[in-house]
Amino acid sequence: MDRKRVVITGVGVITPVGNTVEGFWKSLVEGRSSVRRISCIDAKNFSSQIAAEVLDFDPSVYLNSKEIRKTDRFVQFAIAATKAAIDSSNLDLSKENTDRIGIIIGSGIGGLHTIESEHNKYIERGPEKGARKMSPFLIPMLIVNMAAGYVSMYFKIKGPNTAIATACASGNHAIGDAFRIIQMGDADAMVAGGSEAAITIMGFGGFCALRALSTRNDAPEKASRPFDKDRDGFVMGEGAGIVVLEELGHALKRGAKIYGEIVGYGMSGDAYHMTAPDPEGGGATKCMRIALENANIAPEEVDYLNAHGTSTYFNDKIETVAVKKVFGEYAKKLAISSTKSVTGHLLGAAGGVELIACVLAMRDNLIPPTINYETPDPECDLNYTPNEAVKRETSVAMSNSLGFGGHNASLVVRKYK
Fold first, then answer.
1. From 113, 250, 308, 407, active-site residue
2. Catalytic annotation, pick one of 113, 173, 250, 345
3. Rounded to whole angstroms, how far apart are CA atoms 293 and 288?
4. What are the chain's domains?
5. Is the pTM higher than 0.85?
6. Active site residue 407
């Protein structure tokens, strides 16, 4: 059967550098770091004391007080980013068959705020009182699928509805799976992306215990430095990135603005280690190759690669190895950057936010920089667009997301023509 063409018609973000798409993009292009001393928890006993927090988010703009009490922060982010995406798409849901519109929203961790707050109440009240006072909304607030579930209820969207939990690859997997659902004719439109809000004592402390986080506490804005020789770990972030995908004919019929076309999706598993990537870069290599083959695009046609680029020693080194295997000699000419240098690592939300960065790069023919790239690493020797945005004709872009557990997902987008 002929596969449907799938275009992006709406984009929405909640990020540490802005809760509007244009504000977010301006921060990326200008290279303004979002990393600060952490404010939402007391981190004085942790090795890392910095994070990329969403500081200006007001859930009451979207939800009443009762709804706020029943939803975790990651669900609230998802609602806000989805509203922005639907608004930007001009998709009038009252005129659509919402049985033909679906939702896939991923999250790596889910409702960690809820888990911790309810457990703390139980401990503070003691077993007898705590058991009686446990919130009846504890489970529906914490489960990963509730971002997709609540968004469907909020917008009355009744089509295919599921959730993805593949750690830091969740957002890309959600968008890729939504792309395939439309390709196969099972929906006319999909809301897809990722949402994450895990900067809590347990979430933050857990990554500190893994020794995964940067400890550059005295210079937070310099801490996220992908591919730089002096990188010492990633910076934990939070937020949401949501896109509206549509079957091309559906989008054209209603005169929708088209941000770009998704043409390729690849995924793979490392089958190697819980947290470390395959040292040969096998999983990431396979994932990118599958995405390019799926898109019927040669490696030399890719103008921009938004790298996973976490600012950890192994990720950046091994992703570089994988890029060289996929792109060969062209790897030296390929424009690469890690927008995590600005936003921090948004975990399960990273894929959605970074795909939006790709379509904006194509729109403006402008490659956002990798900031804090000061000391070249001989093991990371490609063009990472250091410190300043670069004008470059950009017709095809790829976005990588590589998650704990060896989950890999790559998306390929191109300008619509």
1. 308
2. 345
3. 9
4. 7-109+144-414 (3.40.47.10)
5. yes
6. no
